Amino acid sequence: MKRLALFLALAFSIHAADAPPKWKKLNPQTPAGFTLKTIEVEKHPEHNVELYVYVPDAPGTYPCILDIHGGGWKARQVEADKPMMERLAQHGFVTALVSYRLSTEAKYPAAIHDCKAALRCLRAHAKELKLDPERIGCMGGSAGGHLSGLTAMTSGLAAFEGDGPFKDQSSAVKACIVMAATQDLVAANKDKTNEGAVLFFGSTAAEKPELYAAASPITHVRAGVCPTIFIEGEKDTLKIGRAEMMEKLKALGIETAVHTLKDAPHPFWMSDPWCAETVEIADAFFKKHLGTVKKD
Questions:
Q1: What is the DSSP string of 222-279?
Q2: Is residue 28 part of a domain?
Q3: Among the listed residues 111, 26, 32, 128, the one whose alpha carbon sits nearest the alpha carbon of residue 73
Q4: Backbone phi, psi, residue 104, to 5°
Q5: What tens digit of pLDDT does each residue of 89-131 get?
């Protein structure tokens, strides 16, 4: 009997060791040594676009990372992305999150216009926020990954700037991370009607294929766009256009890579151990392309 109990205990421990990590929600908590500042980007009747910025208390000029949250373009998930950005801030960055207009508030291109305005706003407040306006990158997951890719691939294209404020500033980024996001919206919606996409665009891909194409990051890959890497979860679905976009980037000699996190679901960056793994990848990538803090 004792042998059976020992065998069962051993079998259970082996099974538990092999079991994938359980989802554990992370809660935001501004880390010691940082101040969380709220900056108003622009007021709209439907929503006031804001930036939430983790500013180091220590002196210096820091590289900056803008996070663009996910939520199918229709849910505001700033709070869920904060733990990731808090951890990245502790690695030597000013980190920021943008609260852009959702599809229930304004149709595309409102969201991308807000992301561009947020980047210009960061530069306009660079001294106050201790950030280097020449060293800004972006990242985002899911719908935020789409917007992050689109923000990066359209750097320098006036048609995507919108009518927002701080027009004397640039909205360009020097490095980009796309997490768990489709990059070709035409191919992804070719043979189906995606309710989230219809809400975002106000039409189906069949009705306005040119609109879906213009909003696809893969469409705008060209010489001079920034290094862009992808992080995906092993347990997530295929992200259409990612592989093809990587091929286009490689053909132009632009750095790209894909990191697949073991057992990771969608959205992996909101739970450990995958948030920690994401931060490690992002830290190395952004330090390579944005550098480190410059002491005053």
A1: -TTPPPEEEEEETTSPP-TTHHHHHHHHHHTT--EEEEEETT--TTGGGBTTHHHHHH
A2: no
A3: 111
A4: -80, -10
A5: 999 999 999 999 999 999 999 999 999 999 999 999 999 999 9
Nearest CA-CA partner of 164 in 195, 201, 121, 222: 121
For residues 30 and 84, is the Cβ–Cβ distance under 8 A?
Answer: no
Parallel, antiparallel or unpaired: strands 62-68 and 131-141: parallel
Q: Within a domain: residue 16?
A: no
In the chain, which ranges are continuous DSSP H helix?
2-18, 78-89, 110-124, 126-129, 143-153, 185-188, 195-201, 209-214, 242-251, 274-290
Count the domains in the chain.
1
Q: How far is CA 251 from CA 111, 178, 258, in A?
A: 30, 19, 16
Q: Are strands 49-56 and 94-99 parallel, antiparallel or unpaired?
A: antiparallel
Q: What is the pLDDT of residues 241-263, one digit of tens each?
A: 999 999 999 999 999 999 999 99
CA dihedral 21, 24, 28, 31 (to 10 degrees): -40
Q: What is the CATH number of the domain that holds 70?
A: 3.40.50.1820
The vertex-27 CA angle with 21 and 31, nearest 5°, equals 115
Instruction: State the helix-helix crossing angle for 274-290 and 78-89, rounded to 10 degrees.
Output: 60
Tokens linked to 245: 């976009």
